[in-house]
Design a protein that fits this description.
Layout lengths: L1 E8 L5 H7 L3 H12 L4 E8 L3 E8 L4 H11 L4 H4 L4 E4 H12 L11 H16 L4 H20 L9 H12 L7 E5 L3 H12 L4 E6 L2 H10 L3 E4 L3 H4 L5 E4 L10 H10 L5 E5 L16 E5 H69 L4 H30 L2 H10 L8
Helix pairs in contact: 2-6, 5-7, 5-13, 6-7, 7-13, 8-9, 13-14
Length: 420
């Protein structure tokens, strides 16, 4: 059996194409069963996210056209609709691709951890649909273990590579225990939402979300057990904030030097970390001149991000070495499966010969023949049967000059030169 990884991702296809081949969660079970109903498809799993749709198949042979045709037919697409965008990785390359995806090395954001959770969901869906066999099941289990090893043994996910992640990482550097602190987030767009998520996951003690539209602030606050306020309410709560992260589309600054000075007096000059990631700026430049204020702009965040990317790229090189080793381990296991069927066939043939000779020996004993003579005859006949076919094949190999056959036999039967 061979393994095939087939699909499209954010590197090979634009979003409108990815949307057309994506599988809704409710479709996955039906699609999996339909896929394994195809000729030569023994096992299957489907990973479908906003950035990739990939089919992992255990096949009787690497029939790429069959898998391509199934995907097109399932989504009612023409050949030209997806052909320029798909990729196919057989066997060794399929295993390596899956390990790289799970480790975040093939993601839009290098080292992002979300794909591993999505991959575990895909594994569970295939398990529930009954479309996993021994090979793919073992491959996914191996993949999860390798992804964990990559996370443990490298710094692939430690360094910030997004503005929101960088802002929260900076907060954790300045305030070691976030559970004792309050964060004020100004705005309710994607960056602020990501910052809120990272702060929540990092155990922030309290979170306030301010937005021009209070309803939007409430909606976001409800996700993270935060407190929602409107922009005009900020001066009344600014003194509570140890961390301020602001990202709005306001054309004018939202926080001025005077309001921050007033908050510092109430705080008795306990320091405030202020991160302004808006363009134009939300916080007046003069605020940075105040004692007890650490003000960072979006340019400062970009420097942190570039350092983080460099760190992740170095970690990715270490991860690739781990993956190369683990691909070899899995392929060795997969190749060993072919030996299992051969071993079973050899054993069954030997047992058939044994049973036939044993039956004949028992009949002789029942007829009163001398037991010692019967045992000697049994041993002689069984030995002849077991070595007859190998002897014939070895003679033929001698005639043909196939030295590799003799080398293999010596290895299999552990025959030393001194034994010959």
């Amino acid at each position: 059996m061979s393994i095939l990884a087939f699909g499209i991702n954010h590197k090979t296809a634009p979003v409108d194409i990815r949307e057309r081949v994506a599988f809704e969660p409710g479709q996955i079970s039906h699609a999996l069963r339909d896929l394994v109903a195809q000729p030569a498809v023994n096992e299957a799993a489907i990973i479908s996210t906003c950035n990739r749709t990939e089919l992992y198949c255990g096949l009787e042979n690497n029939d790429l056209n069959m898998v391509t045709n199934w995907l097109r037919a399932y989504h009612k697409l023409g050949e030209r609709d997806i052909q320029p965008y798909v990729y196919a990785h057989p066997d060794h390359d399929a295993v390596r691709h899956l390990l790289r995806v799970a480790s975040g090395l093939d993601s839009m954001v290098l080292g992002e951890p979300q794909i591993l959770g999505q991959m575990k969901d895909a594994y569970m869906a295939a398990n529930q649909a009954g479309t996993l066999g021994g090979s793919l099941d073992r491959l996914f289990q191996h993949t999860f273990a390798v992804a964990k090893q990559v996370r443990t043994d490298t710094q692939i996910g430690a360094s910030p590579v997004s503005v929101a992640f960088a802002a929260v990482s900076l907060s954790k550097q300045i305030f070691s225990d976030l559970s004792e602190h309050t964060a004020l987030l100004i705005g309710a767009g994607e960056t602020v939402e990501l910052a809120a998520r990272h702060l929540h996951e990092s155990g922030i003690g309290r979170m306030i979300i301010a937005n021009r539209t209070i309803e939007r602030a409430h909606n976001l606050a409800s996700e993270f057990n935060a407190y929602a306020i409107s922009l005009p309410d900020i001066p009344g709560h600014l003194a509570e904030a140890d961390i301020v992260i602001s990202s709005t589309a306001s054309p004018l600054p939202i926080l001025g030097k005077g309001s921050v000075e007033s908050a510092l007096k109430v705080r008795k000059h306990r320091p405030i970390l202020m991160i302004d990631i808006a363009v134009p700026r939300d916080i007046e430049t003069e605020v940075g001149e105040l004692d007890d204020v650490y003000l960072y702009t979006v340019d400062d965040m970009q420097e942190i991000i570039q350092e983080g990317l460099k760190s992740r790229q170095e970690a990715a090189e270490q991860a690739e070495e781990i993956i190369d080793t683990q691909v070899s381990h899995f392929m060795a296991w997969l190749q060993s499966l072919s030996a299992v069927s051969t071993i079973r066939a050899v054993r069954e043939k030997a047992e058939t010969n044994r049973d036939a000779e044993l039956e004949a020996a028992m009949a002789l004993l029942a007829s009163g023949k001398d037991p010692e003579q019967v045992l000697q005859q049994f041993a002689h006949r069984l030995t002849n049967k077991l070595i007859h076919t190998p002897s014939v094949q070895l003679k033929q190999a001698g005639y043909d000059g196939r030295q590799e056959i003799f080398d293999a036999v010596r290895t299999i039967f552990d025959i030393k030169d001194t034994d010959i």
